[in-house]
């Protein structure tokens, strides 16, 4: 747990660095101190040895003792803090510090440390000198000063030995002075220095741990704040800030993280806005849109898809998957993603004609991540196209009959087949009649075209509908009298005016009244009634006792060139009700038609009052 904490790592690293540094410095210091201690001891012992050499040179040279020399020799141990050996020119030991006056001269045999020296000091070894010690004595007798530890085995402890030759007035070596000092004093000083170093090291470690923890926390606190801020950002809280106010690199990192949060929040906000706009745009598209993943599973769709597929809102995903499966589009989707090319296909669905356009979804690396299908209901466009074809066919049919009659009549007249004047007049009348019918057809087509294109000019004004209907009834009275049809006009008193174009409203009611008279048998009645209904609406009702229209044909009477069976015997163009429908749209009027075969038809037009 703690090994992953940066504070622990920083503290441990700091302590290790201090420990290694202190150990390195301590070892170097101990070595330097040891070297200094030994060098200082050697210099002191050499100076003492030289002094002794000068003091004993005269005595050895004259073979006599100076006054007080015995006491001087006895105090050499204290003065030099060493054991003093004085040898003759042959290397035989003549004087050892601590001996009585005159003792040692001529004592002992050779350079050995036999019985003759058994009473001469603190020697612990009564055997001969080691070879290394003999070499030291010989080196000194050769006139050289020597520093060695070769006498350690003689005293059974680490001993530092310095040797100085004794030179007479002729500069001849007549003996040697050897000083033996145990190194115990030096090592004790070193031990004390080591103990001081250990204590200092422990104190430094404690201080290092404290400072390491302090500086680790000083560095890790802003890092923890940055970590918390980063976690808040991942949770969508882009207003989170580190609160780090420092001028070092950590402060710069904290400021960068705060800037990142601010910029990221702004960018995410813009992305959400763009996503919302895109969602609104997709939702407002009238075509259905559905996106698929690489496994051909639908992942998203818009609201228009439910309406196109004849499904209620909300469009359940299970129903959508079932409907898309029934459309059998898996092959097309797979092909689109494999070839990375768009394609389209037509499908029939619940009486509708659907066009599906498939396109692959490709990322920046050129990898296909899914596909999207645009579902377009082309039933209405197909219906309009069929209406266009029917319109052309109907116009051609309407023009073909009069043109055939006119051509036949002209051919008969040109060929001279018709010679009698009354026959010629009859042919001329037929041609005139057909020409007028064509003129009426062309006029209706032009009128319908202007109404559909919206290019017609409306001159709206306040109109008293009672006066307009009275004028219309009077103008059609002559036509009605030819069939002994009575036109009855009933109107409420003080009918409010309406806002509209007088000529267009008169044309509207002329079409309805003309149809009522034209398709009613003789000796019947046509009634026109006006009344004000609720919500400020003026109702105009036209009733006849004509042939009537079957229920299955009522929905088609507003189509161009549509004629019920009874009306096909007349000279109607089949465009009147289509024109009337557009005139009502211009005046925001509503119409309802009720009819029964052989019982008559009732048309109610509702106009908004001013």
TrEMBL record:
Residues 394-610 form the Histidine kinase domain. Pfam families: HAMP (PF00672), HATPase_c (PF02518), HisKA (PF00512). It is an enzyme of class 2 (transferase). The keyword Lipoprotein does not apply. Residues 217-269 form the HAMP domain. InterPro entries: BphY/WalK/GraS-like, HAMP_dom, HATPase_C_sf, HATPase_dom, His_kinase_dom, HisK_dim/P_dom, HisK_dim/P_sf, PAS-assoc_C. It comes from the Bacteria. Keywords: Kinase, Membrane, Phosphoprotein, Transferase, Transmembrane, Transmembrane helix, Two-component regulatory system. It is found in: Membrane. GO terms for biological process: cellular response to phosphate starvation. Signal peptide: none annotated. It comes from Desulfosporosinus fructosivorans. Its EC number is 2.7.13.3. PROSITE patterns: HAMP (PS50885), HIS_KIN (PS50109), PAC (PS50113). Its main location: membrane. Residues 339-390 form the PAC domain. GO terms for cellular component: plasma membrane. One of its GO terms (molecular function) is phosphorelay sensor kinase activity. It catalyses: ATP + protein L-histidine = ADP + protein N-phospho-L-histidine. Gene3D superfamilies: 1.10.287.130, 6.10.340.10, Histidine kinase-like ATPase, C-terminal domain, PAS domain. This is histidine kinase. SUPFAM superfamilies: ATPase domain of HSP90 chaperone/DNA topoisomerase II/histidine kinase (SSF55874), HAMP domain-like (SSF158472), Homodimeric domain of signal transducing histidine kinase (SSF47384). The chain crosses the membrane at residues 12-33, 193-218. CDD domains: HAMP, HATPase, HisKA.
